[in-house]
Amino acid sequence: MTLKINPLLAATAGLTLMTGAAAFPMMAAAQDAAVASSNAQDRVFEAAFFENYAPTTALDMISRVPGFQLDGGDFKRGLGQGGANVLINGERLTGKNEVGGQLSRIAAANVVRIEIVDGASLDIPGLSGDVANITTKTTGVSGTWSWAPQFRKRQKANWGHFHLTVSGETGDLSYSAELRQESQRNGHWGPETLTAADGTLFETRDENARYYSEVPGATLDLNWKPKEDHVGNLNLEYNQFNFNGSEISDRRAVTSRGEDLQTQFSNAEDEWNAKIGADYEFPFLSGKLKTIGYYRAEHSPTVSRFDVFELNGTQTSGSRFFQTADEGEAIGRVEYSWAPQEGRDWQFGVEGAFNFLNIEQDLLLYDGQDFVDEPLMSDTRVEEQRAEATLTHSRPLSPKWDIQASLGVEYSEISQTGDAVSDPSGEVVRDFIRPKGFLAATYKPNDDLSIRFRAEREVGQLSFFDFISSVDVRDDLGNAGNVNLVPSQSWLGSVEFDRDFGNGNTFKVKFYGAQITDLVDRIPVEIPIDTDDDGEPDDIEFGDAVGNIDSTAYRYGFDANATIKGDKWGWKGTQLDLRFDWRDSSVDDPLTLRSRRLNNDKETYWSAQFRHDIPNSDWAYGFFTDQFVNAPAFRLNTINDFHFDGPWGSAFIEHKDVLGMKVKLELLNLFDASDDFERQIFTDRRDVGELDFIESNSRKFDRFINIEFSGTF
């Protein structure tokens, strides 16, 4: 394959080479001192440790901490225990904002140090394992910026990916703000084949798909310290998501079973969403009281179009599916923390939440001349009211043992109204009481080794969209809603071994297991059918919906990762990060009653990342490669298997001072991987039908180039 290099890239590379001759030496002595302080005893990484990487934000710095993996806690329920494994000046991040975004708004110049501590030793409920405490300072007004154009084969050049942040303080108020645009220009293309159960190829397809999006947004974070021990935070965020996707498939018959035609599919979304989060902490009685509020609103109109044409251009069929989703989430929480003795911390928390999803949708079908309305359960609203109370205690048991325990209870009421509800009252209401809690402990037999144990009772998070029926017009599939969904419940257990060999060399492995009841998966459901259009159902057919599986499910595996710094062996400035995950799972298939893996569950994942910051220069280079394997997804009469024909690979070269900027040139998809998909279609339900045919496609997207300019001011 031949790559056509854009003139802008060639000019930038030339500029980078010219400035390389004038590269200033790095502060090797300061770097060595910072590495020396980052030992197994304290794992404190002073700002000097990161100088050789020329970071612009706290996110750049946290990604270079040896052995640490950022966890955003994105799937945690509510505002309560847990969350991201990052603290800012000893405090949890506020609200439910994405952790990477918050860290990218902190300029690297304002980071004093990053300390890796054990979560069980903190007085913050729910945190376990490695937690990064980032100590910051604010010195006047500062900011960061980045611009990352991308160039891909068969796609328009992407010029619209940039971030601009500014931070500072005035009196008792400090602030950070960001403007961003994260446009995407993606696509893939390739053949698809349809093969009968006996191996006969009966149709080929040539397919081309594009996915373009514009994602502008703005964020403002305020921190207020009116007096000692009083701290307030306010977070405001607004985003838009404007998406357009298209897929054209030219189909050609190989045997009489195939068809000669063209299909055109497109989908679009024009979303906006807004978030506001606030908290205030102050001394109260003999402890601290913290009040937290959060609200999120989202408006998402979408449309999907599917059309079928004969080779002469005559349209034979088509459909239009319109959906408007309005979502909202409001959470209020109060936490009272106190320490009757030093090192023995207690916290009592109460939380209330209200969530809703309101759906309006229409389906139009082509009748040979025009698109006409098709009866559809179109208007539905789902609401949840939830309350919880938790009591958490943290304490050291001995110089080698730290422990944290929590007990809680959750009450939830879920109601649904609208066309999907067959109850005469027009509403379905259900309520649940769920116990929850955890026990976490850390044992440190010496300064180099931490052994962590955790047992937890967890309540799962439902997606309200699973309550709503919808239509997949491209694959002609109905997605039945399920008004009877309940949250899953799990017993979770893990043990983790974390060994620090000093000088940034680490090894960590975690073994875990889960027992899951009321697993949310795909199940067969009975759908009433009105065959004579008299308004009354007179027949039943089986459909496919998200639902709860009655049998108990199991999941177990291990995650291992290691960081190797080359300085110890004379390869100064090098770092290699390795990761390998393995997982197995089982549940009784609700159709066949035979054991299978959980739908789309991870089977294996591995990655390797190498970086070399050349000593006494501004140059760096490196590579990244990874590969994942997921389990298939089982539906009523299909088995779907997506696999990435990798591995994925990328390589970069970076110069840290091109006219005061950092410039990074990256080549992606080094191994020319493709998106591959296989679907087995059965003649009837999988438990009674036979394999009818197999649909297989392989879509390439070729190597592409990304170049990032970044800097500070």
Beta percentage is: over 45%
Number of strands: 40
The profile of the biggest β sheet is: 22 strands, antiparallel, barrel
What is the rounded Rg?
Answer: 28 Å
Low-confidence runs: 1-41
Per DSSP, the total helix count is 4
Q: What is the distance, rounded to the nearest whole angstrom, between the alpha carbons of the first and last residues?
A: 41 Å
Structural class: mainly beta
**Overall geometry:** globular
Description:
- The strands form 4 sheets. The protein has a 22-stranded antiparallel beta barrel.
- It has a domain at 173-376.
- The chain is built from 4 helices and 40 strands.
- Helix content is 5%, strand content 63%.
- It has 713 residues and is mostly beta strands.
Please give a quick description of this structure:
With 713 residues, this protein is mainly beta.
Describe the structure using short key phrases.
713 residues, mainly beta, five-stranded mixed sheet, 4 helices
